[in-house]
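Quick check before the chapter quiz. The format below is the same one you will see on the exam, so make sure you can read both the input and the output lines.
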Amino acid sequence: MGLVRFAKSREVKGQVLHATIRRHPSGKYFISILAKIDIQPLEKTESAIGIDLGIRDFAILSDGQKVDNHRFTAKMEKKLKREQRKKQDWNMGPLFTGNFKGVSNVVVQKWEEFVGELNKLPKDKNGYGLIHNDLHQGNFYVHNDEIIVFDFGDCEYNWFIYDIAIVLYHAVQSIDENENKAREKFAQLFIKAFLEGYLTENNLSSFWLAKLSFFLNYRGIYSYITFPNF
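Here is the expected output.
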């Protein structure tokens, strides 16, 4: 057959162990080469970094660095969005099966009252949609004065005001539970600063903002029942 011209994608290094030739439907031939090389271990940096995979960006690192989407992730974007739409609604979690262990009837009755009130709330696009559902001090980094949120495993469709209530609920936990006045002061300062930024992106109406207290109490009983059971 003689010499054949070819386009080389990269240099072959090490000992060649195996070669596979295949013909593409276009008529072109490709050869895949398996080679054995010695790997030099990298120096340990004794550092760690968080990685959150996404759609617009392939990955966002905890130091703020963004990794662009590769071609294969771009092709999967539509499929990923379809999967996101399959996220559960607010009342599809394990707490809504009615199987409560170690919870008093008084608490169960109170829980059912909250669920009843939630069922009455409207689900319009301005107040209801996909939320993070677990945004607390352990689920974000601050890098160059920017907040980088991660851990979207608990996302669900719920009311936007509930996402705000979760943030406030967990932020207040950083203050000693016996320091009621300190907690109250911190909560007022925190929610003022938080809403100042939040409302620039999602302008919730006064109707929903007025329900913050209700959702805070709902989060309280939700957490009380969840942690002993799950």
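If your answer matched, good. The chain has a mean pLDDT of 83.
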